[in-house]
Amino acid sequence: MNIKLRAPVSAAIAIGVGVVVLAGYFIPSITNIRFALLRTGLVLAAVALLVGIINLLSVHFKKMGSDNENSGYSLILVIALLLTLVVGIIDMVQSYMLGQPNFQMTNWIFTYIQLPIETSLLAVIAVSLTYAAASILRKRMDLFSITFFFVILLVLLGSFSIPSATLPFLHVIRDWIVRVPALGGARGLLIGIALGTITTGIRILMGTDRPYGD
Amino acid sequence: MTDILCPTCGRSNSDDQESCEFCGSPLGFDDFSLRNDLLPPEELDALGSLPPVEPDDSSRLDDFFQSIEPEASSLRNDFFPPDENDDHDSLEPSELHDSSPLKDFSSSEEIGDQDSIQPTEPEASSLRNDFFPPDEDDVRDSLEPSELHDSSPLKDFSSSEEIGDQDSIQPTESDDPSLLNDFFSSEEIDNQISIQPTEPLDDAEPDLEPASFSEDSGWLDMLQDPDSTADEDRESEVVPVSPPLEGKSGTDWLEKIKRLNKSRDEVDDDSSFPDWLSVTGKTEVGQKAKPEESDATADELPDWLQMDGDDEKLNEFLQKKDLYDSDIKLEDSEETISEEKIEEKETTQISIEESVEHKKFPSWAADDVSTSAKDAQDIPEELRFLAGVDPFQIEEEEFYDDLFSEELPSWLTTASGEEGTLVIEDEISPGDLPGWVEAMRPVVESMDSTGLSEDEDYIENYGPLAGIPSVLPAEAEFAPDTEHAARKPLDLTATKSHQEYVNLLRKLIGEEKKVKPIKKAAPVQTQRILRWLIAIILIITIGGTIIFGGTVDTQLPPEGQINNSGYGALYNQIDELYDGQPVLIAFDYQPAATAEMHIAAAAVVDHLMEQGTYLSFVSTQPTGPVLAEFFLTSTQEKHAYKHNQQYINLGYLPGESAGLVSFMIAPKKIIPLAFDGSNAWESPPLTKVDSIGDFAMILVITDDPNTAKIWIEQVGTHLENTPLNMVVSAQVEPLIQPYFRASPQLLSGYVSGVIHGLNYEHLREQPNLANAAWLPFNIGIFITVGTIFIGGLANGVFSLFSRHRAGLIGEIK
Is residue A155 part of a domain? Predict the structure, then answer.
């Protein structure tokens, strides 16, 4: 008889840990148990990060060996990962050996490779958003599009603050938009997120939702 | 040995049996059973003393009738009023001197089942009259066999419907029930109300002369509907009276039979009688009086047809009745009688042969009767009933023509045809079809006008259009016949324009067969240009401003606005810190947001450093520790903070919310070592820190709303005296404002984006990165606003123009 114990055990563990951690907010005597569980969770999360890095390497190693046209990108990724890892290990060894932080190579890679790349991507997003805002009336011209279009202009102009060219009423409008409509919308959004989080927590505690798998 | 027909099942049984060997019904024809069947119980007492009647003994039956005559006559008076008796007095035997029919009739033992019992004579015409009323003779004559001595031919030609409607049909031979079975089908027998016995063959041979029709009208009238009978009686009064029939013996038994029939009529009206006795359908058996024939045949009546002097009263009555019936018949059925019939009536001196020919016998029955009679004598006894009958000589069409060409019998015309037929004839004249019928006819002429009448020779041979010419052929004939088409080109007159159209069509069809490469949809060049134009404008303006621009003198916001703002609150909190207090700074932003976050956080961290706080860096992002180091080296280089002395980089805190909760409870246990591997908690400011609440301030630098929310919800809710502040991107400000503007505040203060960073610098009166980036930031905003506005208007106008054009195209289509 084939009995699958994986699903019940994992569900029991998840539900049990969730109940204990939740009860730790209300019962001080079990704070130590709650903390032990949370600490174990942190270790598992760190290990999961390492497992993720290993999985990333294996996947791209397989892509490198195939005839996939994107295998070159995988090669670059693997080389960069290994290079950064080696540089980081070297900096760590030097730091331990010297007795003081020495992350010059790591900072160089971060400052001159990772930071410009990600900043450039964000800059492209800025251009794309500008283009999207400009073409929104072409793709869909209705009340919401027009409203969205003019709100963008008002907020941006309200953020414009050059003394000789600043219009005071634009600042007032911008502050009103941020404090009233944006705040109200954000609160509603947060309340919705909170309700969703509670529902998800209850479903997990009851075993209905199993994000950890069957 | 005589067979006895079972009154129940109709099968023959030997006379020595008392009960039917087939159904077990009693075969004895005792008076009690008869009385029980015919008479109601109260009348049985009057008949109780009657002697029993033997069915196979005519003399005993005569005795029986004679014995019951007084009682029966009184019963008749009781059952029927005098008027009704007159109607039923027409029961006359055609053969008055011979009681053999009665014998046969009696031996059939169907007296109880008979609705009317009629003895017949073997003579041909009388036999016809027995089976059919005189009105039907014209039709029936053509159906009768030439040999009339035997009833077997009748069984061959008589249709079931005709016979089934007869109220009075008697078995031909009591000793030969098979003939009856052959003659009538089972259904026919069921429909028959009475079956009359016929005369034996030997007795019928010498009497082939046509009997008078009036002689049989009486018993047929008896079977008719009372109303129709009354009408016919009125007709018969006009017709000359047929010569009286003599024969006392015949009238004696006829009287008895009439009494029985009258009793049967009474039984019909009495619901207390059993079903098999109740006769609901009274088929009209009206007959037309033919006085001329009657007169002609009266002189030629055989002896056995002559009546006795004792029956003069009855004859007188019959003459009156026949006169009445004939008169009514002539008046009512004048239209239905053909001229040939009328002429026939006027002819009084016709021979038997002429009479026979005049009856329109069918071809198979049109043989000379006399010849048939002679031939019949040469035929063996057992095959005599087939004499003169040659069924193979029957022509079917002639048979049906004879069958349907003559007038309908009076009982049909009087019953249903007199009113309804006339009305229909008035509405629909012969030859004129109603409009809806003509509309349903296939219009064959239209085929000719189209010129497509090549298939005129084709005649549909099946289906509802069978027999109609020029019907569209079946789909199989629609298959393209290229050879036929090539041999026979269309005979069209094509003009030049038609040929041009044909050429154009050929060209279009030819192009359809060509394979065209699918071209990729060309991107909208204008949009690509716009995209590049936006990028170029932003790069040039902002980059030029950064490179060649300077600073802009900005003004400090109003004091009330500062006190109500997040940067004002944060400034006040940092301003209250003093040297050596531990401050936890979380670098939880992505490297992409480094520029904005550095500009916003530079003044705040600078302020903390100026206050001399001990900074502890932690990050829930893997890149956070490096970002922290980069931040210090890039923005706070002037402070020259040293690791483990003035700040500590605790590194990466995994687990997001769970890690934060754990770090909040026991930071030393969660992160025991610093980023460089040194003991993080050995420095003097951190030795007193056992929980996150022991820090003097917590400052979270993030560009992610979710991260900000986690910090506020997981850490800020458990902080009592430690303020939680944030430096966030401008996009996060809307989501953290609710926590800042809540009561109690979960967020003590915040700096959002470049604007708040500039304001914070204004508060500190120390220009920093925000002040340096303010001009490019504003130029970038201006260019962006201008681009969005111009591009938006252009696209909006273009969209309106496109919609208008599409609407015009739709209207044109």
Answer: yes
- Say if B799 falls within a structural domain: no
Q: What is the CATH number of the domain that holds B649?
A: 3.40.50.10160
Distance from CA of B555 to the nearest CA of A (A): 8
What pTM did the predictor assign? 0.50
- Closest Cα in chain A, distance from residue B747 (Å): 14
The pLDDT-based confidence of B4 (bands split at 50, 70, 90) is confident
CB < 8 Å to A135, chain B: 527, 530, 791-792, 795
pLDDT in tens, A159-186: 887 766 677 788 888 888 888 888 888 8
Indicate the residue of A131, A160, A182 with minimum beta-carbon distance to B778.
A160
- φ/ψ (deg, to 5) at A12: -65, -40
Residue type, B12: S
Whether A93 maps to a domain, the answer reads no
Distance CA B38, CA B279 (A): 12
Q: Pick the residue of A91, A98, A113, A115 with the most B CBs within 10 A to test the interface with B by mutation.
A: A115
Which of A83-87, B450-454, B665-669 has the least mean pLDDT? B450-454
Whole-number Å distance between alpha carbons of B367 and B619: 133
In a domain, B149, yes or no: yes
From the DSSP assignment, how many helices (H) and strands (E) are in chain B?
Answer: 38, 9
Q: With contacts defined as CB-CB under 8 Å, which chain B residues touch A138?
A: 795-796, 798-799
Q: What pLDDT, in 10s, does the model give residues B619-655?
A: 998 889 888 988 988 888 888 888 888 888 888 888 8
CA B604 to chain centre: 85
Distance CA B569, CA B575 (A): 10
Any domain includes A145: yes
Most confident of B138-142, B170-174, B183-187, B386-390: B386-390
Contact B286, B411 (CB under 8 A): yes
pLDDT of residue A4: 64
CB pairs under 8 A between A and B: 174
Domain housing A195 = 140-208
User: Is B191 a domain residue?
Assistant: yes
Q: How far apart are CA A65 and CA A48, in angstroms?
A: 26
Residue A130 included in any domain = no
User: From CA B487, how far away is CA B794, in angstroms rounded?
Assistant: 66
Which residue in chain A has the smallest CA separation from B536?
A: A127
> Chain A residue with minimal CA distance to B633?
A107
| pLDDT > 70 fraction of chain B, expressed in percent and rounded | 44
Distance CA A51, CA B161 (A): 102
How many whole angstroms separate alpha carbon A127 and alpha carbon B789? 14
- Closest Cβ opposite residue B788 in set A42, A103, A152: A152
User: Which position has the higher pLDDT, B61 or B667?
Assistant: B667
Write out chain B residues lying below 8 Å of A182, CB-based.
734, 737
Residue-wise DSSP of B457-506: T-B--SSTTTT-BSPPPPGGGGS--HHHHHHS-------HHHHHHHHHHH
Distance of residue B788 Cα from the nearest chain A Cα, in angstroms: 4
C-alpha closest to that of B784 among A126, A100, A6: A126
Range scoring the smallest mean pLDDT among A18-27, A155-164, B54-63:
B54-63
**Residue B69, pLDDT above cutoff 90:** no
Of the partner residues B534, B592, B649, the one whose CB lies closest to the CB of residue A130: B534
In residues, how long is chain B?
813
Confidence of residue B173 (pLDDT cuts 50, 70, 90): very low
Residue B452 lies in a domain: no
Range of the domain at B567: 559-772
User: DSSP letters of B193-220?
Assistant: SB------HHHHTT--SPPPHHHHHHHH
Name every chain A residue with its beta carbon within 8 A of the beta carbon of B738: 183, 186-187, 190
